[in-house]
Each structure stands twice: as structure tokens, then as C-alpha cells.
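Shall we go through a protein fold together, starting from nothing but its sequence? Please make up or recall a protein chain and show it to me in full. Go ahead whenever you are ready, and we will take it from there.
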Amino acid sequence: MNILSVCLALIEDKAEQDKFEALYYQYRGLMYYCAQKLLHDEHLAEDAVSIAFLQVAQNMDKVDEVMSASTKRLMVTIVERKAMTLYQRQQREYNRTVDMDEVICEATSLGTEENALMDAILQLPLIYQQVILLKYSRGYSSKEIAAILDYTVAQVDQLLSRGRRRLKKLLEAV
């Protein structure tokens, strides 16, 4: 099922469906161009356009005429915002993956005492491993860790506290 069919199914009024279909055919190329210009990835650009059209379908009351400068600006603004959201999400995911891989590689190349500590850290659940390694191996602040992992600062502080307690128990058992 393509995005046009999905969006049309969201709209109950036949006149609104016709208006949406006209919007779709009028602006899909422009919207794709704008998203592609920001994202430099055809699949992400297609996703941004689809998400934008879903939003438009849910808010057809905000669209006056199909062929107007204000409607054109609205369509471009919506797709640019959706593209930026996708870009930011992609960057967070990229940073999260790269940071954790690098941190674990660095941490495993330590001396024997440090290896015992790293072995204990690696026995922790993944979320505790991440916050502890980002905090103590990389020196990130709780605020920076929260941004990387998409948590609040309070959640990061709580995870650090719990992780340190679990780590202490693991090290005492050794």
C-alpha cells in the first residue's frame, strides 16, 4: 500500500480527499527535492516526504488552496522539519553506536587490574555498561550522556548510581 492510499484512508470527506490528492501530485516532487537536499539519502528523503504527507492528511483543515504560495511554503516547511528530525535521530544513533564501540575497544586494551574491572563492567546489563563507560572511560558529563542516549539527566544519574552499586557487588565477589 503506498503513502497516497494510506493518507486518503485517513481522510473521511470526499472533497478533502480530492484536495489531498491534488496536493500530493502537485508537491511530492518539490518535497522530495527539499528533503534530499537536507538528508543526502534517497531513502531517508522518501521517509521524510511520507511522514510529512501523513501529517498533512491529519491536518487538512490547515490547507486552504492547493495552488497557493502559502500552501507551497507550508508543504516545504513540514517536509524540512520532518527531514531534520530524521537527520537528528540518525545522528544520535550514529553517535551512540560509534561511541560505545570505541569505548569498549579502548577499555578492553587495559592492564591486568583494569581488565578485571572491565570484565566486571561487561557483566553488567548493557545500559549500565554504557553509562559507566561513557562517564568514566570517556569523561562525559551526565548531561552529555543523557543527550547521547536520549535520556534525562536524572535517569542517567540514577543509572550511574545503580550501575556503580552492581559493579561494587561484582568486584567484592572476586
